[in-house]
Design goal:
Blueprint (H helix, E strand, L loop, with lengths): L2 H6 L32 H21 L9 H18 L6 H16 L5 H5 L3 E7 L4 E5 L2 E5 L6 H12 L12 E5 L5 E5 L9 E5 L8 H7 L4 H12 L4 E5 L5 H9 L8 E5 L11 E5 L13 H8 L6 E4 L6 H10 L6 E5 L3 H13 L7 H11 L2 E7 L5 E13 L2 E16 L2 E8 L7 H6 L19
Parallel strand pairs: 7-11, 7-12, 8-9, 8-10, 10-11
Antiparallel strand pairs: 1-2, 1-6, 2-3, 4-5, 5-6, 12-13, 13-14, 14-15
Helix pairs in contact: 2-3, 10-11, 11-13, 12-13
Length: 467
């Protein structure tokens, strides 16, 4: 994308400060560890005026046809022009202030403004902007307020536009919320007035630069090595798996990890609202839904993509999240030869997951009897992995449950592994993962795939397999 295009989208334009060429050597007096801009409003205004004036000069000097995707070259050009502007206007700054001003201006032109340092901090997992003056982050599962702000609500809107415009999406009063993603797959949600009463609200769920590994999940206490061996066997044996949990519980991260076990010679089709899965296999087709355009036309739903995926000769279908009538088509796919499919769903427990899926199937308007829906669910889904974010911020798999069949009109379920919390000490949840002592009925399917799990995995000795 050219610099001219970004300017046309209103992403880098700022209003002139009207300060002329006045020297700002007094800026060297500004000192603050928490807020480098300074403690008084006059100092902050001086710094803001300087930043705006230098930024506007840079935009006037830069070649508008420059390709901003070539970040290194553009950054070097900005650096040269930046030094030239400071020299021409006789602006005296300390080395620290000069570096900080350049980084802020470069972030405005090439990145996401005040959010850029937060995006580059790998310890931050979520960024929450509640209007121009309130920015929060999540780090190690805990929320903290940051001592940085945007200039105004219009500044926040420019950053939101910069995110959604390249994806062909829009956000305005007629469509005041949007889901999007960053180049690295991080999930973005934005909602603006009049729906939001606190100004533009931006939420970014960051993805790590390098995907989380199995070893890290064990280190974090999300699950154990025995559980990993079990779920690996389930994926290879082509069981249909639902990963359930609340918001921020780590469902998508776990789905990414489980997808690593899919054999490399299988064709995988992924379907998402905003593409964020990071599958490592080569033979992957990624599909993304599309909202309607300004005329209300052109919408492509998850349900339509699931139906289309059936014509694409998939070995496995992975849906980022089931949240509506697409659940019916996902069940149909699982029941018509596409074993090994996986998806995520918001719920409070494995039992609630089935109830939600049943409700979502009803949303399809097919007027199916409840028993027929439950039979489809019981036949299609083999395993539910339920994950929670604990009080201390840790994410843990708390239940692994088999969907074992029907008894009357009720779907029967059997817990295979559970997490038992034994205490809460020094702000940390204490507990252990425990096998229930029962083997799943689908163990024969696992063994047919050439995988033999020891009885100790399920907490039993030489007992006969449960039928």
């Amino acid at each position: 994308m050219s610099l001219l295009k970004r300017i046309e989208q209103g992403q880098t334009t700022t209003t002139s400060s009207g300060n002329g060429g006045k020297s700002t050597s007094q800026l060297g007096k500004i000192r603050s560890k928490e807020d480098p801009v300074g403690g008084t409003s006059s100092q902050r205004d001086t710094y803001s005026d300087l930043k705006t004036r230098v930024q506007n000069r840079l935009l006037a000097e830069l070649d508008p046809t420059m390709d901003v995707t070539r970040v290194g070259e553009v950054r070097n050009t900005i650096q040269e022009l930046f030094e030239q502007v400071l020299a021409e206007e006789n602006i005296v700054l300390t080395r620290q202030e000069r570096h900080r001003l350049f980084e802020q201006i470069a972030a405005e032109i090439l990145g996401l403004g005040p959010l850029q340092p937060l995006l580059e901090d790998e310890s931050i997992t979520e960024i929450m902007v509640n209007g121009a003056k309130n920015i929060y982050i999540e780090k190690a599962g805990k929320i903290h307020r940051m001592p940085i702000t945007f200039e105004s609500d219009e500044h926040v809107m420019r950053i939101i536009d910069r995110i959604v415009a390249p994806l062909g999406r829009r956000i305005d009063e007629s469509s005041p919320y949007v889901d999007a993603r960053l180049d690295d797959g991080s999930r973005v949600n934005a909602i603006i007035p009049p729906i939001s009463l606190v100004g533009p609200v931006l939420t970014i769920r960051k993805f790590p630069a390098s995907p989380i590994t199995l070893e890290q999940l064990v280190e974090y206490g999300t699950l154990t090595e025995d559980i990993i061996e079990f779920v690996k066997a389930c994926v290879i044996a082509r069981l249909n798996i639902i990963i359930s949990g609340g918001t921020g519980s780590g469902k998508t991260t776990l789905l990414n990890v489980l997808s690593q076990f899919i054999p490399a010679d299988e064709r995988i089709v992924t379907i998402e609202n905003a593409a964020e899965l990071q599958l490592r296999q080569e033979h992957v087709v990624t599909l993304e839904s599309r909202p309607p355009n300004i005329e209300g036309m052109g919408e492509i739903t998850i349900r339509q993509l699931v139906i289309n995926a059936l014509r694409m000769r998939p070995d496995r279908i992975i849906v980022g999240e089931i949240r509506d009538e697409a659940a019916l088509d996902m069940l149909q796919a699982m029941n018509t030869g596409h074993d090994g499919s996986m998806t995520t769903a918001h719920s409070n427990s494995p039992r609630d997951s089935l109830a939600r899926i049943e409700t979502m199937v009803m949303m399809a308007g097919m007027d199916l009897p409840v028993r027929a829906i439950r039979e489809q669910v019981a036949s299609a889904i083999d395993l539910i992995i339920h994950q929670e974010r604990m009080r201390d911020g840790d994410r843990k798999v708390v239940q692994i449950t088999e969907v074992s069949g029907m008894e009357g009109d009720v779907i029967t379920m059997t817990d295979i592994f559970v997490f038992e919390q034994t205490g809460y000490e020094d702000g940390r949840v204490i507990g252990r993962f425990r096998p229930t002592g029962l083997r799943p009925k689908f163990i024969e399917q696992i063994e047919a795939a050439g995988i033999h799990l020891p009885a100790a995995t399920f907490g039993i000795g030489g007992q006969r397999r449960r039928r």
